[in-house]
Specification:
This protein has about 450 residues and is mainly alpha-helical. The chain contains 19 helices and nine strands. The protein has a three-stranded antiparallel beta sheet with strand order 3-6-7. A two-stranded antiparallel ribbon has the order 1-2. Strand 8 and strand 9 form a beta hairpin. Helix 1 packs antiparallel against helix 19 and helix 5 packs across helix 13. The model has no long low-confidence stretch (mean pLDDT about 95). It binds alpha-D-glucopyranose. Alpha-D-glucopyranose binds next to helix 2.
Length: about 450
């Protein structure tokens, strides 16, 4: 545990104040100046302890960006001349469903909104909670309906993602393995071959403030950009995208979070005494069953899956453990995942949980989603461990997380072997979830 919890609490709260932009919180100064979808959800979970009205505002401001077809974009861009390049790269206005008042990307991020709505609701007494739920329910339902209509075109229960950024785990190994092995465009292969990639780095904003070896490689950055351009050329129209696309993956992290979110949407509907649309209810049930199709008996693990071929992408990552958060897998399989966290050579180094197991060829202790420990995924795993009754494991992970942040500061991610900080300093979701872990009573 931290030496002085109240000191850590005030430092974390100061980060949230520093990044507060009035109606939303930027993830980090300079590097992430706009509003991000799952960031604001984690941030609201922290803010609810000190100011529940501000937490509500954080979530309501996400709804400004909702598309008329229900999509919630992963980024709502800031106004102002300074940010025009970011807005122009996406040109969300090309799609007729994009909102008029704000500009956004054309992709989404893990559906954490329902969790955040319920966590904020838990801080409200009944009549206020009902009002709060009533205020967000239509937007939530239309988001979940969009997920199934657009992203589960064959009605199989799993939703697909079209850009690595939609997973929230940007350069996570299963996606990067696919990219390097099968999907790298020729022009990027040539740039790599002719060793021109270092010139690309001169144009990057991220590596001006963060060391290069803690971010995407130049080749991977170009590939992300290439996918973005392809999506933009198709005006973010899913039919045109699926007609001939690069990435279509049913991501394990995304679908695990969706299952938990669906459970929360049901809770909200029940509290409001309304019935969910029948097609949505049916799709939700399918997702719980379909998660089991991602289990590979030979290696005894869950994986993401290629949407077209149904091939499991057998490269472990932090997503391997996220079915614990989904909460619908059997206790036996949950126990199996817990063994992976207990293993010091796998998911259990000194400062767990690494975003890639440390015995994987992909593991780099400071490289973004390819090794470092992140506080948001720890929070999700702690929550799952508790619900499966692994209270001691949950408590141990909570303590190591708080100790790590106490020692290093509210950074974006941490070296799982040493606890050293990496990425952006004063990172909002680290701060917010530290507040939540400090304020939430453990049940051991
Ligand atoms: C990075 C993370 C993503 C997050 C964003 C803003 O892109 O990978 O998950 O939402 O930063 O913090």
């Amino acid at each position: 545990m931290p030496d002085d919890p109240s000191d850590l609490l005030s430092k974390a709260s100061a980060v949230l104040t520093m990044n507060d932009r009035g109606s939303y919180t930027q993830p980090a100064h300079n590097l992430y100046p706009h509003q991000w979808l799952w960031d604001s959800c984690f941030i609201a979970i922290g803010l609810r302890h000190s100011d529940v009205e501000r937490a509500k505002t954080e979530l309501l401001s996400l709804l400004r960006g909702q598309w008329h077809n229900g999509m919630l974009p992963n980024i709502i861009f800031r106004d102002g001349f300074q940010w025009r390049t970011d807005r122009n790269l996406w040109r969300s206005w090309l799609n007729p469903y994009a909102p008029n008042e704000v500009t956004t990307t054309g992709i989404t991020q893990p559906p954490m909104l329902a969790e955040a709505v319920v966590q904020v609701g838990a801080k409200l007494a009944w009549p206020e909670r009902r009002l709060w739920y009533g205020m967000v329910y239509p937007a939530l339902v239309s988001y979940h309906q969009w997920l199934y209509h657009e992203r589960d075109p064959h009605g199989e229960g799993l939703v697909l993602q079209i850009h690595p950024w939609e997973t929230g785990l940007d350069n996570t190994p299963p996606w990067m393995a696919e990219l390097h092995e099968h999907l790298m465009p020729l022009w990027i292969r040539l740039i790599d071959k002719w060793k021109l990639s270092s010139a690309i780095n001169l144009f990057r904003r991220d590596t001006k403030s963060i060391p290069m070896d803690q971010r995407f490689s130049a080749v991977e950055s170009l590939a992300m950009f290439d996918i973005q351009l392809r999506l933009r050329r198709k005006a973010y129209d899913i039919n045109r995208i699926l007609d001939h696309s690069l990435f279509t993956i049913e991501d394990l992290n995304f679908n695990s979070i969706l299952i938990r979110a669906n459970t929360h949407v049901r809770t909200i509907a029940k509290s409001l005494q309304v019935d969910l649309p029948a097609d949505l209810e049916q799709s939700m049930k399918k997702t719980e069953k379909a998660l089991e199709d991602l289990w590979d008996p030979a290696t005894a693990q869950y994986y993401s899956r290629d949407f077209i071929t149904h091939r499991l992408l057998k490269t472990p990552s932090i997503a391997t453990l996220l079915p614990l958060y989904a909460g619908t897998i059997s206790k036996e399989r949950a126990q199996h995942l817990v063994h992976l966290i207990e293993n010091n050579h796998h998911f259990g180094p000194a400062f767990p949980v690494p975003s890639v197991p440390i015995d994987s060829a992909w593991f780099h202790p400071k490289l973004y989603w390819q090794g470092p420990t992140w506080v948001n995924t720890n929070w999700l795993i702690i929550d799952g461990l508790k619900r499966y009754g692994f209270h001691e494991h949950a408590q141990a992970l909570k303590e190591s997380t708080l100790e790590m942040v106490d020692k290093a500061g509210c950074y974006e991610y941490f070296d799982p072997l040493t606890g050293e900080p990496a990425g952006a300093p004063n990172f909002s979701w680290t701060a917010a979830l530290v507040v939540d872990l400090l304020k939430t009573k453990s049940k051991t």
